[in-house]
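Incident review: delayed structure delivery

Summary: a single-chain prediction request sat in the queue longer than the usual turnaround. Root cause was a stuck worker, restarted by the on-call engineer. No data loss occurred. The affected request and its eventual output are reproduced below so the record is complete for anyone auditing the incident later.

Affected input:
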Amino acid sequence: MPANTGNIARTCAGTDTELHLIKPLGFSVDDKHMKRAGLDYWDKVKISYHENLREFIDTIPDIDKLFVVSKFANRDYTEPDYSAGEGDYYFLFGKETTGLPEPFMRRYPDNAVRIPQDDSKIRALNLSNSAAIVIYEALRQQSFPKLERVHQYDNDKLK
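Output delivered after worker restart:
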């Protein structure tokens, strides 16, 4: 959905995270809803486009730093140590409606993580919310590198 992609792009801009988009997208990147969701932050997001899933996978220098996010995974997104070693981490999300292709998931079972949810009430969490949850957990484990606090409050004035 264009709005989800725009929201994810805004999260990426605010966290200095690169956004990788894998084709086919199912919508135009010129979509007005996507642009509106991303507000005026598009020039602050590093975006890479990949023709297919294989092309994206080939760009990852250390496959152990790829995490595929699926409600069918056995371990929670908070379990891996995202602060270990050098280099970037990659989080791969599928379509909100269908998830990632099952044959692909079978190839990377040790890289799969899940966000706990009540499956009796919903099929899936919102994709942009899921991306934000996982990105911020990884950044939390890394003590939020490059993310400065912009406002400091005088605690005495808050009492």
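Verification: Helices lie at 2-15, 32-37, 53-58, 102-107, 127-141, 155-158.
Action items: add queue-age alerting; document worker restart procedure.
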